[in-house]
Structure formats: C-alpha cells, structure tokens
C-alpha cells in the first residue's frame, strides 16, 4: 500500500470534520460541511482552501528570462517584478507538459507554481532544458499555500495585515508582507472565478494562519472548503484542469487558452507545432454543453453527433451548483462546435441529447 503525501494542515483536518480522499497521491479534504454549501459560500461570502500540495520552484540566474521564454508559451518579458502570469509548458508536438503560474520575484528571479501530480515530471523536464546561468530550487516541501476566495476575501484578509490590499490588482502580488504575524507572499489570484488571494507561507506557519483566517472571517461567513467545491467552482468559470481539459494529447489551442500562447514572441518548445495547428485549423475544440435530456455528463463519457458518429468526449461535467443545470465541458470535432448544435452524450449505455452552449457557465 503506497504512502499518501500530506500537507502541513493534515493534523487539524479532523477538527473541521474533513472527509479526505486520495487525490493524485495526496491525502486531501474533498469536503468539510458539504460541496454545495462550500461552493455557495465562495460565490456569496468566502471559502478557505488548503492547496499546499501544489508545487513551487524558484528559477534564478542571469539567463532566467531566456530560459523561461524557451520553456513556456506566454511572454515572460512582459512580467514586472510583483506580477505573475498564467502560462503553459508544451512538448514539441504541442501537447501540454503542465499549466502553471510564473511569479517574477526579482530582477533575475522567478517562482513557478505547478500542479501537484506533475512536480516530479515538471522538474525532470525543466532539468532537461537547462541552458546557461540557471539555478532551480524546488521549495515545494517547505512551502504551504492557502487560498482565500470569494467576494468578502479582501475584507477578511484586511483584518490580519496592514498591507494596502485595495491597491493590489489581479495577477499582482506583495512579497514578504506580514499576515497575522506570518511572513507571506500574497497574490490576487485564484481558481474559483471569484475575487480572492493565494498566500504562500512557510509550512510551519500553515496551521496558525489557517486558524486565524477562519477566526477573523467567521462573522463574514468564511468556511473551510475542499477539493470538491474547488473543482465545481473552477469548472463553472471554465478554468482548465490538467489531466482533463489539458494533457500531453490536448494542445492549449484546442483547450481554448490560446490567449496565453504568444506565437510571435520568438522560439519556444512546441511553437512550430502550435503554429501549424493555428494555420491549418484546430481539429478539436473545447465547448460547453448543456443536457437537454436527463442525465449528468461525466469525465470521459463519449460524445456523438446526432447521426451517431463519435466526435469527442466529456472532459468535466456535473450539476452546476450555481445554475442548477446539468452541464459539461467536452473536447469535440471542431465542425460540431457552433452554439446550439445538438449532440448526444452516452450515459450508462444510453445516448442522451445535449446542446452546445456559451462558456464560461458563470462569470462574476
């Protein structure tokens, strides 16, 4: 039996009635009070997530910017100190190694935030492509990450820090500020479609800060939230999940995140393949679907044209807690991607009618 990894907050999960599951080799809370309640809290007040399983890697050196330009799809030269950027690492064929955030922490210093299940693979990929004066430092094991998300997040966090949060724009961060006596990097980012902050702190400080945030946020409806609500929230906002909307066989262009692929910035790994794909036409497209018939579309359920030909599959699907509709994201043949196109989803052996709808399903 394999040993599951645990975050620094694992010792207090039971204090909050957490239900833990195996998530990519980590023992993590899928829910506390319930996915629907936690989802609603983030949409209406605020939720606090333990996402300390995410990976963090510092990249520094005089060649750091050139290295990251070659490694990632977005234009690293556009990032100022105190700013972060969503980006992707691709294989030469255009498939995705991982999606990530790039934080510029200094003149020649960056922090990459990568997906937990990809840490070892990403580090190996990064090592393979080292050139010049570059230092890589994997700080994942000594870093905890708390995500405070929701319309009341700024009000709650302001109770614990004197930093001018109202001046912090989206995808900007304050580095080495004090929050409840703890040194933190605080960025205005998140994975829920709501306003919010992500707080990078030393692992030893995680329990203290978790408790303080829940204590000062209680009057504003702040609740601990698990991976279940995190998934339904990001899904409604059409934020991709690696392994579902993105993978080594799904390109960024197919997944609908072409905005973060700067083909004109110069050479990078995967550029040639992605340029060909853009020039000749994207063969598959990620679309939103809404069920017309009864049934919930789930990951990997086959999708068919109304004539009976399989044209793709569902990548994520659920009953939207906000919309109360059975909806999904599906990667399908681009020729069937027009809005209101009717499709069939195979659910437990039966083909159930659906239609293509606009995304994101939810926008604040």
TrEMBL record:
E.C. number: 2.1.2.10
GO molecular function, one term: transaminase activity
Reaction equations catalysed: N(6)-[(R)-S(8)-aminomethyldihydrolipoyl]-L-lysyl-[protein] + (6S)-5,6,7,8-tetrahydrofolate = N(6)-[(R)-dihydrolipoyl]-L-lysyl-[protein] + (6R)-5,10-methylene-5,6,7,8-tetrahydrofolate + NH4(+)
GO BP terms, alphabetized: glycine decarboxylation via glycine cleavage system; methylation
Record's GO cellular component terms: cytosol; glycine cleavage complex
Coiled-coil region list: none
A Pfam family hit: GCV_T_C
Keyword Transferase appears in the UniProt entry: yes
Domain Aminomethyltransferase C-terminal per the UniProt entry, residue ranges: 284-363
Binding site for substrate: 198
Keywords: Aminotransferase, Methyltransferase, Transferase
Residues in GCVT N-terminal domain copies: 12-265
Function: The glycine cleavage system catalyzes the degradation of glycine.
Family note: Belongs to the GcvT family.
PANTHER family named among the record's database cross-references: AMINOMETHYLTRANSFERASE, AMINOMETHYLTRANSFERASE, MITOCHONDRIAL
Quaternary state and interactors: The glycine cleavage system is composed of four proteins: P, T, L and H.
Protein name: Aminomethyltransferase
């Amino acid at each position: 039996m394999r040993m599951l990894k645990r975050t620094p907050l694992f010792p207090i999960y039971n204090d909050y009635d957490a239900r833990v599951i195996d998530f990519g080799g980590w023992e993590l809370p899928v829910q506390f009070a319930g996915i629907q309640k936690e989802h609603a809290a983030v949409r209406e007040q605020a939720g606090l997530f333990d996402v300390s399983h995410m990976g963090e890697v510092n990249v520094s050196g005089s060649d750091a910017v050139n290295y990251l330009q070659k490694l990632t799809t977005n234009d690293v030269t556009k990032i100022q100190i105190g700013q972060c950027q969503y980006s992707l690492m691709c294989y030469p064929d255009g498939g995705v190694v991982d999606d990530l955030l790039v934080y510029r922490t200094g003149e020649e210093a960056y922090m990459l935030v990568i997906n937990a299940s990809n840490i070892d693979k990403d580090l190996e990929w990064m090592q393979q492509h080292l050139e010049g004066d570059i230092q890589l430092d994997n700080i994942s094991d000594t870093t905890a990450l708390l995500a405070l998300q929701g319309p009341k997040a700024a009000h709650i966090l302001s109770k614990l820090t004197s930093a001018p949060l109202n001046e912090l724009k989206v995808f900007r961060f304050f580095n080495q500020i004090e929050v409840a006596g703890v040194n933190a990097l605080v960025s205005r980012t998140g994975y829920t479609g709501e306003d919010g902050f992500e707080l990078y702190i030393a692992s030893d400080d995680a329990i203290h800060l978790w408790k303080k945030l829940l204590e000062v946020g209680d009057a504003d409806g702040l609740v601990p939230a698990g991976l279940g609500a995190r998934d339904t929230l990001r899904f409604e906002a059409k934020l991709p999940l690696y392994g579902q909307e993105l993978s080594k066989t799904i390109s960024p262009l197919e997944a609908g995140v072409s905005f973060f692929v700067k083909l004109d910035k110069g050479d990078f790994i995967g550029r040639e393949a992605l340029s060909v794909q853009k020039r000749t036409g994207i063969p598959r497209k990620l679309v939103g679907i809404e069920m017309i018939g009864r049934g919930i579309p789930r990951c990997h359920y086959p999708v068919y044209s109304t004539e009976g030909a399989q044209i793709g599959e569902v990548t994520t699907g659920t009953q939207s807690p906000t919309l109360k509709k059975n909806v999904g994201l599906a990667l399908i043949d681009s020729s069937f991607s027009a809005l209101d196109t009717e499709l069939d989803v195979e659910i437990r052996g039966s083909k159930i009618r659906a239609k293509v709808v606009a995304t994101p399903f939810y926008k604040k």
